[in-house]
Every structure is written in structure tokens, then in C-alpha cells.
Specification:
Shape: globular
Number of helices: 14
Largest sheet: 3 strands, parallel
EC number: 6.1.1.2
Strand content: 5-15%
GO molecular function: ATP binding; tryptophan-tRNA ligase activity
Protein name: Tryptophan--tRNA ligase
GO cellular component, one term: cytosol
Family: Belongs to the class-I aminoacyl-tRNA synthetase family.
Oligomer: single chain
Number of strands: 5
CATH class of the largest domain: Alpha Beta
Order of helices and strands: EHEHHEHHHHHEHEHHHHH
Radius of gyration: 22 Å
């Protein structure tokens, strides 16, 4: 049976992955990598659009790659590549620009929200869905792995592919199906927004044990519970939500918490243990890879070369299909 092509990835606007990244998509990448052709893009061109920490992008690429490998991404099955090192992606991007308009782009919830808040000052951010389409469609991807909040962008990607296919008069591009990394968005420690390093609400993979414990102590629980003997509400309690991510059986805890028999400190202690135990082997691997940066560079070079060869091959086929191949 022919392996399916999966394109997924992250933007190196940060230098540390957090548990939201892991449970939101990386865990599913690890699950699907062996039986499929998985391509993992580090979208450094897209990271420029917010104009933050641009000077740190190269360093972030290295650190994110280290954490990918430490968490379980296996380069036997997964090609990790750097977006900016495949210029042919820009050809797909330029072509797709001709099939969308401004009104189409601002239907994206994230873009619409940022425009409303007047936080967008460049076309790079507004045309992000087109760039995403170029990344996904250039590999003729069957699937992508994204969180719930990214689904509107993939829907736009598929609309672009349909428009281009209609123009060509065939089905050159596939409809990209979605593999949900997690059915629910992984919320930050305060329970209000998606977990994000920029919002200072994340539990980072490579933080020290002391830093992780400090963050866990800040986690939103039940604001109405000012004493331990007051019955607690666990439904919107982020500690219980995080424990479920680690497959911890919370049935007994929920009952004890609801009856006012256990404190917030007690359930946070259990969460700390779960996180720290999970991260022990991960941190050992991080330390090992940090001592061999040349190996990480080679991983990126190899993954990028393989990925570029595929994009170039598909671009040549596309140009012939379109009748744009001059030579």
C-alpha cells in the first residue's frame, strides 16, 4: 500500500516547544511518521511577518529541531526541512496569489481578529494562508496534522487547490485532509487563551524542574475555592485538564476535590510529578543533542535536500500541466 504524504510543521518564532505543541500535534506526528511519508516544515519565512526576534530565528531552528528529536520525531521516517531553503515554494506561492483576493484572506478568523485589533501592518501576515497552501500543495499532501484552531486555514488551502484545479481542468492537487492533533485546543495555564510562549502561559519542554514547578503553582483552578474544605469545581480546572493529557486517571481525584477533601496544592503536586517524570528521558536527549550541533545541522541539510527535490519535481510537473514549461 502506497504511503500517504503528510505535511506539518511549526514557525520558529520561539526557541522552546511547550506541552501544548506536544499534545496539540507532535504526539500525532510521532504516531503517524512510521507508516507514512512525513515532512516537517520549520516555517522561517512566515516567522518574519510578526517582526519579532528575527535575529534569533536561526538559533530557534536549531533548538526546535533538538526538541523534535528528543520528543520522538525519527529522521528515519520524517524529513525536517527549513522553508527558506526551498525557493521553489515561492513559485507556488506566487502562482496561487492569482486565485485569491483580499476578502477571501480576511475570512480567516486569526487574520480578521488581528485586523480588528490593528495589529497587522504587512501583507506577509495577511497572505499567510497562501503561503500555507504553497507548503502543503507543493508536496501533493494527502494530510496535514494541525490543532483545532488551524482548521480554518486548511479549509482555505483546499479552496485554493479547488480553484486552481478548476482552472487547469483536472485534479492536479489533492484535497488535503486534516488529522486533528488534539480535538480541543490546549489552553494556557490561566485557562483563557491557547497555550503560547508569547502570552507567558506555557509549560515549556526544556524548562528546569524548578521553573516548571513555579509555573504549575500559577495554574488556574477554582477561583471560588478559598479554603481546602470548600467543595471544588474541577470542570474548568486546568490542572485536571492537563492531568488528562498525561492519561492520569482523575476519577478519584475529582470526587475528593468535589467533596473538599483535597487541596489545590495536592493536585498540583501530582501534576508536577507527571510532567517531570515525562520529561526525564526527553531532557537527557536534549542534553545529548546540544553537545552535537553538527549532527543537527546535517539532519536539517539532509531533510531540506530531500524535501526540495520533491518540491522541484512537483513544480516541473505542475508547469507542464499548466503549459508554462518553456524549456
Amino acid at each position: 500500500m502506497k504511503k500517504k504524504i503528510i505535511l506539518t510543521g511549526d514557525s520558529p518564532t520561539y526557541n522552546k516547544l511547550h506541552i501544548g505543541h506536544y499534545f496539540g500535534s507532535i504526539k500525532k506526528r510521532i504516531k503517524y511518521q512510521k507508516k507514512n511519508k512525513l515532512y516537517l516544515i520549520i516555517a522561517d519565512n512566515q516567522a518574519i511577518s510578526n517582526k519579532k526576534n528575527i535575529d534569533k530565528i536561526n538559533k530557534n531552528i536549531i533548538e526546535i529541531t533538538i526538541e523534535y528529536l528528543a520528543l520522538g520525531i525519527n529522521t528515519k521516517y520524517t524529513n525536517i526541512f527549513v522553508q527558506s531553503q526551498i525557493p521553489e515554494l515561492n513559485e507556488f506561492y506566487t502562482f496561487f496569489l492569482n486565485f485569491v483576493n483580499y476578502n477571501f484572506l480576511i475570512k480567516n478568523p486569526t487574520i480578521r481578529k488581528e485586523l480588528k485589533n490593528k495589529k497587522i501592518d504587512n501583507l506577509g501576515f495577511i497572505t499567510y494562508p497562501i503561503s500555507q497552501a504553497a507548503d502543503i500543495l507543493s508536496f501533493l499532501s494527502d494530510y496535514t496534522i494541525v490543532g483545532k484552531d488551524q482548521i480554518p486555514i486548511i479549509e482555505q488551502v483546499n479552496r485554493i487547490s479547488k480553484k486552481v484545479n478548476n482552472f487547469l481542468g483536472n485534479n492536479f492537487f489533492k484535497k488535503c485532509k486534516i488529522i486533528n492533533g488534539n480535538n480541543n485546543t490546549i489552553m494556557g495555564i490561566y485557562g483563557k487563551n491557547k497555550m503560547s510562549k508569547s502570552l507567558n502561559n506555557s509549560i515549556n519542554i526544556n524548562s528546569t524542574d524548578k521553573e516548571i514547578c513555579k509555573v504549575v503553582n500559577k495554574i488556574y483552578t477554582d477561583p471560588n475555592r478559598i479554603k481546602q474544605n470548600i467543595p471544588g469545581n474541577y470542570k474548568n480546572n486546568m490542572v485536571f485538564k492537563y492531568l488528562s493529557l498525561f492519561n492520569y486517571n482523575t476519577n478519584k481525584l475529582k470526587k475528593e476535590y468535589s467533596n473538599g477533601n483535597i487541596s489545590d496544592c495536592y493536585i498540583k503536586k501530582i501534576l508536577k510529578e507527571q510532567i517531570l517524570d515525562f520529561l526525564i528521558p526527553v531532557k537527557k536527549k536534549i542534553d545529548k543533542y546540544k553537545k552535537n550541533i553538527d549532527f543537527i545541522i546535517e539532519v536539517l541539510k539532509k531533510g531540506t535536500k530531500i524535501s526540495r527535490d520533491i518540491v522541484c519535481k512537483n513544480l516541473e510537473k505542475f508547469k507542464k500541466n499548466f503549459g508554462k514549461s518553456i524549456f
